[in-house]
Amino acid sequence: MTETARSQTSNETASYPETGLKIERVFSTEGVHPYDEITWERRDVVQTNWKTGETVFEQLGVEFPEFWSLNASTIVTTKYFRGAVGTPERERGLKQLIDRVVSTYVKAGKEHGYFASAADAEVFEHELTWLLVNQYFSFNSPVWFNVGTTAPQQVSACFILSVDDSMDSILNWYKEEGFIFKGGSGAGLNLSRIRSSKELLSSGGTASGPVSFMRGADASAGTIKSGGATRRAAKMVVLDVDHPDIEEFVETKWREEDKIRALRDAGFDMDLGGKDITSVQYQNANNSVRVNDEFMRAVENGTEFGLRARMTGEVIETVDARTLFRKISEAAWACADPGLQYDDTINAWHTNPETGRITASNPCSEYMSLDNSSCNLASLNLLKFLRDDDTFDAPLFAKAVELIITAMDISICFADFPTEAIGATTRDYRQLGIGYANLGALLMAMGLGYDSEGGRAMAATVTSLMTGTSYRRSAELAKIVGPYNGYARNAEAHNRVMRKHQAANDDVRTLHIADAEVHKLASEEWARVVELGKTNGFRNAQASVLAPTGTIGFMMDCDTTGIEPDFSLVKFKKLVGGGSMQIVNQTVPRALKKLGYDAEKVEAIVAYIAEHGHVVDAPGLKPEHYEVFDTAMGERALKPMGHVLMMAACQPFLSGAISKTVNLPESATVEEIEQIYLESWKLGLKATAIYRDNCKVGQPLADGGGKAKKDAADAADAAAEAKIVEKVVEKVVYAPTRKRLPKSRQARTTSFTVAGAEGYMTSGAHDDGSLGEIFLKLGKQGSTLAGVMDAFSIAVSIGLQYGVPLETYVSKFTNLRFEPAGLTDDPDVRMSQSIMDYVFRRLALDYLPFEERSALGIYSAEERQRHLETGSYEPVEETGNASELLESAPVAKAAPVEAEVVDEDPLAGAPEVKVAKTTAELLEQITGHAVDSPLCLTCGTKMRPAGSCYVCEGCGSTSGCS
């Protein structure tokens, strides 16, 4: 199948215009197909629901590049391979998937006159294939679902609908929204044209108002969501702040949240997915209030604001602006809705005002354009463009952007759309949404704090370069295949917005060589945009957005999604062959090296992070470097305003907006939410959404849902555990057995120095090679120190012989800090925090297998060197032998216990020990604090935030994002 797709792409005939694109070969190698530069391997993809134990998917022997993680290959296999599993039609490897998509793009490019020659078309094919297979970028999910199949060729993930003040239009809204949900996408719309409940109908009766019609749409979305689409239905509902029903709109989800609490307290199952939650309304949409500058100034000044009739535009009621703003913030505090969209800012950057205003957005608030339109997305993996010297490769990034934006425009030539109106608008305005992922990882690897001037300057210049390059290529395409149909009537406005982008770029103040290089190239691109736009026009009405990049972020093996910072410093890594292990993000050691730390200090800091999940008090780490390792969750969680400032740095360089939620702690006040909404407006954001931890009762935690339920469950678990202990004491007498060492045993003696203090360690082993005793000699015979060390040695030796695992001792005594501490004479442990730290690192290296040591962050000098050379600590002979690796529990591992089968199990009904299956669950166990996000409905694990929705890193499912 792969070879067939390749030959079709290469051999089709087409007419090539002399003015067509000449494609430069940058990434691929002439004469070598991109696939032939890669080592491929076969994998078995098996997906299990961790809650039920049920196997929900299985496909054996799928083919992927060896450098793709198991997680990436699992998500691609389960989400994007087409054909029924077990049939010959089923795709069996990544080559088939990429060929299916790329061949369709190349064919359409030829047919529509994009390329100057057949050779240029072939280079385009190879370059696009190379970027995809090497995880430099990804198209949005609908492309992988649909392109090249017998299904409609829908390539867009984002839709905006419209509704007017008539029953025909309202019922048509229900229908169109339903078809979009059925296809697995989401839509948004503004209900402000519908007259309020305070206005009269032409018949003399009172209108129902938009909130009443929201009920029917919400029920429809909930029904279609549960019907088995590729992802949950996602929708955005917007209402203008001057609509007479604005207070009722603001209170809708707030009141329902109170209902959820009351029903929960009465014993009903109100968790997300619970059997009683369906009685609650308005839960299937994100709600946003569209505010204008007039209202926000009234809030600042404490003046009144007029609510206007929909039919006549006259003011029919006045309200105190601050009181209404307070109510919006109180509702957001209580249930996370509504968010705000800043209407005047949005339309000030609108390239097509002569066609119509922008009134709404897609469900995640990043796509903002004309009514009845759509946008296809693609995102670049920023970390791929980081050079070996930890500087950003701006020229290479620009080359990738111009190729990708070309492909995205080609897709509109063959795309299908869910409605005729959406198809017509999209073909006339050709809206694109190029974006990126891994910004948080990029900044950390460069040694830049996410919430720092340097981090924001770097993010701003990269975003500016991306959008500038996109519009420059759009102007070049306009010369070859013509500007978008709506350009002529909007030419003046479009070029004005381009000059606004250029002026914003000029205002960026760079702080170091790395961002100065990017900024210089971005400035050159914007100069060309302004110049080419005057003569050629533009092929696309918009070019860029910052989407959540949930599923496709995992496809590219990104550590961070969209514009987000790193979620946490530790994460789970699935292993080929089965099992998983806890690792510290690989960006961390790279950042430490960039900051000037030597290998020994890097190892010590990484080991500390593996145990504690954060960098506070990490050995040898300077406090001024803590900010580089700030994350979305955990001990050093970013402050809410840090998220807002990062969005503000990037917003002037985006055609659309940014999908991001500003996360607040449970202790946050309504006043803080007011401040975030107000500052977001002042800083020029187009939209802001907030989420306060544990504000939603119907948001299930790993052990139940809502805080009150969690507390009750904890109390019940504690009572159950007490009863179990009592029962065990009553029926089972556990007598540990000592395993004595043989009279003659193998032993090794190690001499060492720590910061000049000399000592000796003798360790004795059982016949099976496991450690059974240690003797430590420090100080003079008869001294207090020598006596204490003798007693300590005896205690540890007896514990070892009674079955205490060595790894337990290692996890407890490594990173213990006291003097003497410093350099050692051991090449494997160059830096030690104390004598105890050294002794148990040495014992781990001598007696623990590689898999258990690596989980504790302990490596030999040879393994560290191998990591520097190959990127892997693992010995060559063990690579891929993952079936021998233990599935790790993230904090402390329990010793394996074998139990005989008895008639009555005294521990029957005991609470299960919860083993983390995802990074979110791992962070919960390390920190002891709950991550407030839902469980995945597919595999049962805890999801993590991505933009303004959630994504499951286990199976790639999302809560509605693209």
Automatic annotation (TrEMBL):
One of its GO terms (molecular function) is ribonucleoside-diphosphate reductase activity, thioredoxin disulfide as acceptor. Its EC number is 1.17.4.1. Keywords: Cobalamin, Cobalt, Disulfide bond, DNA synthesis, Nucleotide-binding, Oxidoreductase. GO terms for biological process: DNA biosynthetic process. InterPro entries: RdRp_reductase_class-2, RNR_2_N, RNR_lg_C, RNR_NrdJ/NrdZ, TSCPD_dom. It catalyses: a 2'-deoxyribonucleoside 5'-diphosphate + [thioredoxin]-disulfide + H2O = a ribonucleoside 5'-diphosphate + [thioredoxin]-dithiol. Pfam families: Ribonuc_red_2_N, Ribonuc_red_lgC, TSCPD. Residues 742-846 form the TSCPD domain. Residues 156-691 form the Ribonucleotide reductase large subunit C-terminal domain. Its cofactor is adenosylcob(III)alamin. Catalyzes the reduction of ribonucleotides to deoxyribonucleotides. May function to provide a pool of deoxyribonucleotide precursors for DNA repair during oxygen limitation and/or for immediate growth after restoration of oxygen. Belongs to the ribonucleoside diphosphate reductase class-2 family. This is Vitamin B12-dependent ribonucleotide reductase.
